[in-house]
Amino acid sequence: MASKDKYSNDLGLTLGMLTLRIWLGCRAILTGIEKYAGTNSSDKDVLIDGVPNSYGLTDTVTGKVYSLSNYHGVPVPLYDKFSNEPLIPTWGLNLYDTILGPALILLGLGVLLGIAQRISLFAMGLVYTSLTFGLILINQSSGVAWLGVHIIMVVMALALAKHNRFAVLKKW
Q: Which residue in 2, 58, 123, 133 has its CB near the most CB atoms, within 10 A?
C-alpha cells in the first residue's frame, strides 16, 4: 500500500503526465481544426494618404478562414498520391478522408480532458500508426519520423497513466 501512495503522490510524474496530455491533446485538436482551413481572397481599395484612391486601384488581400466547406481530411496533393497506391482501396481512402479531422478533434479532447485516458491515448496511437502506414506507402520518410515521435509520446503518456490525478473515468 505504501508503494502505491508513493506513486500517486509523486508530483513530478503527475505533472509530467499532465504536460503530455496538454501537448498531445492540443496537437490533435489543432491538427483536426486545420483540416477545415482554407483561404479567402478579396479586393481592397488601395489607400493614398489614408484615403481610397480615385483611380480604382485595388489590391488582393488573402486571409485564412475556417469552414465546413474547406474540409479535407487528407490534403489534396496527398490524396492524389494515395489514390494511386494499390494497397489503399478507394473506399478506404474516402472513409479516412471523411473521419480523420473529426477523429483528431474528438481524441484530442478526450486526451486533454482526461476522458477514458488509456482508451483515448491508445486510439490516438492507432490514428498516428495509420498515418504512418500511409506515409510509408508514399515514401515520406521525414513524416514517418515525426509520427514516430508522436507514438513515443503516446507510449510515455500510457506509461504515466497511473499518475494521472486529473481524469474522468480513471479506470479506462
A: 123
- Whether 94 and 155 map to the same domain: the answer is yes
List pLDDT tens digits, range 84-104: 999 999 999 999 999 999 999
The pLDDT tens digits for 106-126 are 999 999 999 989 999 999 999
Residue given cell 489614408 in the structure block = 50
- Residue in 82, 84, 60 with CA at minimum distance from that of residue 72: 82
pTM of the model: 0.81
* R_g of the chain, CA atoms, integer Å: 22
- Integer CA distances (angstroms), 134 to 19, 42, 90, 139, in order: 29, 36, 13, 9
For residues 11 and 43, is the Cβ–Cβ distance under 8 A?
no
Cβ partners under 8 Å of residue 111, min gap 6 = 21, 24, 25, 28, 117, 120, 121, 124, 157
Residues 122 and 79 in one domain: yes
Q: Is the CA virtual torsion 154, 91, 97, 102 positive or negative?
A: negative
